[in-house]
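Dear H.,

Thanks for agreeing to be a second pair of eyes. The structure we're designing against is below in token form, covering all 210 positions.
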């Protein structure tokens, strides 16, 4: 009897954007990749040439889409279906959008700064908490992406630090307090295998040479 096909989910954060290079909180601002970012995206693609995808998902934001394009080009998979959806957009940083992260840290102190960046339900004026991001990203994953994985499809998601942290919180049952320890560094791939019941049967990490 043949073993059931296991679906593969690959999560990757977008490459360096123009505002990442300047140390600015980008949030929902739509910026392009930096020159370094375009090169990183191709290196990302070289890192996963062994995985053939059935479909790719990314946010509506340009930096994620440009990263995805670079990955698919480098891995010679430009013909697959690509879906862009705002459910996996980056967190809205509200009044902090466009501000230099390190200047904000110096102004409000390390503890408050870390709570804003890593906390589960730390409010930002006119912005979103990570809990808010979770409330839009996880239902979308459950309704649209998980059934594909259960059918044995291989799925790539290119998104953002916070939308990916929210998905990992769900997938790995991370506590509200524990979510502060989740980090999606540039070039870090998190790879899951799912069985037909939607259960994770294997987890792997890879680091692109960026």
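And this is the sequence the design step returned. I haven't edited it by hand at all.
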């Amino acid at each position: 009897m043949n073993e059931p096909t296991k679906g593969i989910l690959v999560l990757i954060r977008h490459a360096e954007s123009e505002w990442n290079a300047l140390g600015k909180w980008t949030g929902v601002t739509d910026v392009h990749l930096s020159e370094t970012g375009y090169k990183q995206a191709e290196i990302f693609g070289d890192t996963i040439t062994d995985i053939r995808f059935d479909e790719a998902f990314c946010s509506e934001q340009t930096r994620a889409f440009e990263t995805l394009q670079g990955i698919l080009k480098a891995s010679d998979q430009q013909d697959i279906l690509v879906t862009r959806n705002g459910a996996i957009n980056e967190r809205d940083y509200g009044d902090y959008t466009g501000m230099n992260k390190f200047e904000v840290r110096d102004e409000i102190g390390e503890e408050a700064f870390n709570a804003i960046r890593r906390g589960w339900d730390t409010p930002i004026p006119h912005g979103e908490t990570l809990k808010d991001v979770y409330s839009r990203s996880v239902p979308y994953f459950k309704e649209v992406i998980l059934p594909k994985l259960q059918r044995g499809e291989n799925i790539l998601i290119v998104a953002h630090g916070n939308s990916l942290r929210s998905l990992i919180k769900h997938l790995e049952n991370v506590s509200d307090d524990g979510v502060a320890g989740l980090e999606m560094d540039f070039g870090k791939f998190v790879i899951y295998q799912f069985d037909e019941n939607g259960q994770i049967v294997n987890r792997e990490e890879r680091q692109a040479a960026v």
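Two observations from my side: The helical segments are 18-22, 35-47, 62-74, 101-108, 110-118, 130-150, 161-171. The first helix runs from residue 18 to 22.

Warmly,
E.
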